[in-house]
Amino acid sequence: MAKIKHNNFLDTVDEVISNATDAGVIHLDAEGDHLSGRKIRVRGKDSFHFGTTGYLGLEQDIRLKKAAVDAILKYGTQFPLSKTYISHPLYSHLEEKMESIYNHPVIITKNSTLGHMAVIPTAVRDEDAVILDHQVHWSVQNAAQILKTRGIPVTLIRHNNLEMLETRIREFTTKAEKIWYMADGVYSMYGDFAPIKELMGLCKKYPQLHLYFDDVHGMSWKGRNGAGYVMSVLEELPANVVLVGTLSKTFGASGAVVACTNNSLFRKIKNFGGPLTFSAQLEPASVAAAIASADIHLSEEIYSLQDDLREKIEYFNRLLSQTELPLISKNDSPVFYIGTGLPATGYNLVNRLMKEGFFVNLGLYPAVPGKNTGVRITISRHNHLEDILALTEAMKYHCPLALGETDNNLDRIGKAFRIETAASIKTGRELGSLKLQYEQTIKGIPKEEWNSLMGGKGTFNWEGQLFLEQAMAGSTKREHQWLFHYFMVKDGDQHPVLAAFLSNSLWKDDMTAPASVSKKLEEIRKEQPYHMTSHVLSLGSTFTEGEHLYIDRKHPKWKEALKLLLHEIEKLSDNLKTEMIVLRDFKEDNELARIFNDEGFIPMEMPEACILENMNWKDEDEYMEKLSARSRRHFRKEVLSFENKFEVEILKKPTDYEIDHFYQLYHRVKQNNYGINTFAYPKELFSAMADDVNWEFIVLKLKPSFYEGPEPLTVGVMFCYKNSDITYVPSLIGIDYTYATDFQVYRQLLYQTIKRAKELGFQRIDFGLSASFEKRKLGATIIKKFAYIQVEDNFKMESLGMMRNES
After folding, report:
1. Region 32-59+303-417: CATH code
2. Whole-prediction pTM
3. From which residue to which does any coiled coil extend (predicted)?
4. Contacts of 346 (CB under 8 A, 6+ apart)
């Protein structure tokens, strides 16, 4: 698997968002010459607006509009000066009113994102530690990254997992002065709440614990004077709590507000919170609109507005309770999430609703895991009861159709979100003439049939798979207890449309992390061997590389066959309780990528694969002529000039002593290379190679004249598989690093592998993944490879991302 870099993540997000854009569900443009709040014009159609975060509808209040217009006429479109020097005339009035709302001192910021960037690096001291809920808003997580440059530990816990939080707190009690836990008051995707009372209980138990809340989605529609959800629970703001609210969204204006009762911290933020000092202040129009909204909040009117919204929320909840629609989190927030599971179902349902005249949002990766896509609906005071009823009826009608058209069902959605669903809605399609065969051993598939589809590929022809099954059988270690799964899909004429094999095994989560992260985790694993590991269901195995999925793309039903396979893999993963599905080793293929995306798989770039196919040279000189001029110079200097320093031996049946030594050399490579961080294979695997006619060992021995010793010294070994007289596969390598650099051992092993494959008459060499720079210089072709992954949740990926950013 790949070492995922930050730009790979950006590429992944770009592909997901591009697919959603192509599907017509995001990056849309509102049309028309005015907005009313109740309706929005999209693609020439007036639709009921169920996507706003202005839950009380104050952005359309005439008082806020007039105040903003009047401020522009009086003070201009902006006041272009840092607030540290001087604020425009309206600022102090807004601060006074916001202090009355919170009953505490406040600081006004340009927006909540800049507010977090101002407050978090100021509030958190070098001797502190930070724990983030892994669903806390991106703006909080992004601001927390700044702390890592100062050596402050930042870690994640699973969403609202108090047990995990308390474990993290205990870990930091002797290491940190203050322990900050950062969370949302109301979470923006599912509309669920932070367990504030329980968190305050932990504060009493652990006095070091301080809380930092982003409550922008709880603002205005909840709490005394609309101070927000967090204040509705706390009533008064404790000294160990920092609260960030918003003047945007429900408040109806622009900007954000920070409330803090710690006078010293308050002063430090106000005096030097980076963006407060160096960013422009809120425009007069925004401040004036916020003042007008604050006046409403400070009046009895705010409670009638809250009551109006609450009645509509309760009404929608009642309507949904009478349906089988999969509501993910039922509560009294204005945010509702109807799970679709598959992105394809989400695209379909959103487009159906938009055609019916309902504008809703789609929740998709990276805001949620790929298979937790859903329709995000928000209720506001703009919505009339008849609008809400009409939306519910439309969803009741279109949801089963969207499920059916995308081969989805409520049972799959329930499993994806780990919720109970009413699975009485019948959806899905008949398989027709396609027949699926499933086996747990390669023995269940005729050798000729498998090899006609998979022969000559990597190490996984029929004989190679039988070898692997037998070599990995009976191990007592968890990481070596592999299960194998074989699938064949045939049409009514028994013609193979698709074939694949998968393995279920324990993986290190950092297989896709930078080497620096793996090094840190390996230190922890010295005491906790299975720290940050997961059971994974993967195409192929960590031992194999190549095209593990055969598809007859000329067959008219190949797409149906592929979806059938993906559904079976999903069921198998559910039965095995695996945490991740990995479909790997694909070349760039837009058509396949779209299918995988529709099924909830996220693309990831893998290390490049290396193959050598140009084997039609007669001798060394002719081989060199096929290299580039630069590669020829490299070959003469770094490879050819060292060849006479070695004796090369081809072993078919090494002794037990030799296997022991080869295994030690293999382990040295594992210990020195975190490029692809897998568990080390058991020694039994290497002993099995010695007993298998399809394996041989290229042994590199340093001549005695080049080191102090009486006889040739084994300094390198290549473990090679001979696949059907077609492909030669240098599968694993072992090196004595004492001599590796001085004698270019790795490069020499690569070259001797090429010579051996040529001597045996093989058509190609599969050089595998990684080290593509070295292999290219010896004539290998480099192929870009991709994997598609589906995870239970994003927690582990985000945790590794945190560690990556520390490196």
Report:
1. 3.90.1150.10
2. 0.88
3. none
4. 25, 340, 362, 363, 364, 373, 374, 375
